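Pilot study result, target chain (142 residues):
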Amino acid sequence: MKKLILGIAAMAMLSLTVAAQPVKGVPAKVKSAFSQKFSKATDVKWGKEGKTEWEAEFKLGGKSYSANFDNQGTWKETEYSIPENEIPATVKTSFEKKYAAYKMKGTDVSETPKGKVYEITVVKGNKKMEVAFDTNGKIVKD
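Predicted structure:
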């Protein structure tokens, strides 16, 4: 019985160690594209997002970011959180007009080659949803 328990404990430790290992095999094109776009990034950790996309989680200017690249090194998206006081006035005004009864519970910025959107998580009672606004305050997802 003692050997069984030790064996299970050893397997658990091994699986945790394996899970904590950094992802290997990030294509050189992806690493190069990341380095060019985010040359001052620190604490970079890579993960796989599907079969053809890589995600880097990193720090930049004191904030936490994530950025996605395809296998060829083409940048797809960058996301980061911002405090409510950094939301542009156009977005805040639009939010307050349509969602006055809701409370903000978090704001992320999503940048893609198509542009930037502000994703705001809103809550009203038990209802929680995410609303996205473009930089002009136009709702692009609700």
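One observation from the pilot: Residues 24-74 form one domain. A full batch analysis is planned for the follow-on phase.
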